[in-house]
Amino acid sequence: MSDTPPPQPLLDDDALDRLDDFLASERVGEDALDLISSHGYLVALAVAPRELDPAVWIGELFHGEPAFSDDAERDEIIGLLETLKANAVSALEQGLLPELPFELTLAGLPPEETPIGDWCAGFMEAVFLDEPAWFDGDEEGAAALLLPFMALSGLFDDEPDMAEMVDPTRLEGLVQQLPELVLDLYLNYRVPPEKPKPSPRKKARGGRGKR
């Protein structure tokens, strides 16, 4: 038996269904993220190098204020989004893998025609919100870590550098690794490297000699 714990769901099924119903309703704008995209978006925010003001990321997720029925519904929906994000942080802090809300296979389809592409596009939306934080300091390293999400999102298909990532066999492998890739990003951005312990100072020789 494997000692690897199973991926951790970030919300239970009832909560996901409630979010799905609301985000798919006519009370949110056409440009708002759907459930799958929002899941990727919130996981990226859990990984992000620095915290964003909730007003910023909530506004970007909805692309305008939804037509909430009342303050209680607004608190409920925003609370579910914040809980999903907080649960992602908690799981990653413990070295656990997040459970993604889709099967980890493309089944021969282009990523952009699957929930995988939608999830990765949502993930990249969160990166676009604060690109300097993700890329400053080590642009090459950040690009390498984010390349799988970029390739699977379908947002960069016209970029020449993406050509080598488009091979279906390679993309299928990246899909299988998505939870591990999320954890890798978290460890890169949120867990500072251990500093080497200072060597013990040697006692200086000398001093008073014996009489």
TrEMBL record:
SUPFAM superfamilies: YgfB-like. InterPro entries: YgfB-like, YgfB-like_sf. Residues 192-211 are annotated as: Disordered. This is YgfB and YecA protein. Residues 198-211 have a biased composition (Basic residues). It holds the Pfam family UPF0149. Transmembrane segments: none annotated.
